[in-house]
Amino acid sequence: MGDIKQCGFLSDQIxxxxxxxxxxxxxxxxxxxxxxxxxxxxxxxxxxxxxxxPEILVAxxxxxxxxxxxxxxxxxxxxxxxxxxxxxxxxxxxxxxxxAIAKDAKxxxxxxxxxxxxxxxVLKACQRNAKAGVSFFQQHExxxxxxxxxxxxxxxxxxxPIKKASSKQxxxxxxx
Length: 176
Known about the structure:
The chain is an all-alpha fold. Helix content is 78%, strand content 0%. It folds into 2 domains: 104 residues, no CATH class; 61 residues.
């Protein structure tokens, strides 16, 4: 491939830089490999109760966190620092949710309802776009899914005040 000006992070020059970077920071990459190996082993040995929402969410969040950790390692090897920072933020938000569930298992229910509400909002936006004539949204039926999701949210929220979950809440729970 061409030089860095022509091909950016896919250039042969980056490949050479990657080798130098790995040599310079070998101890850190070795530590990351060790942490990754241990985390992968832990993930493979998890015993999850399929009827326990907090356990299911914790397993999912651990898996997502590990994937983010691996992405940061891969991107850092190629010098993609800004991209690492974006994924690091995702990793931190993920960890806040994990810590919040660890401190109060009831948070798991709030996370599920918050996710449903976000999906509902996206479906409503799709519906508005379809009404406005955006052809992609006219081809996909969202009305039934929106109705089903509204009913699901209503059932989950019935007799329980479910608060809107946010990163600030998680930080407060984790630090509080």
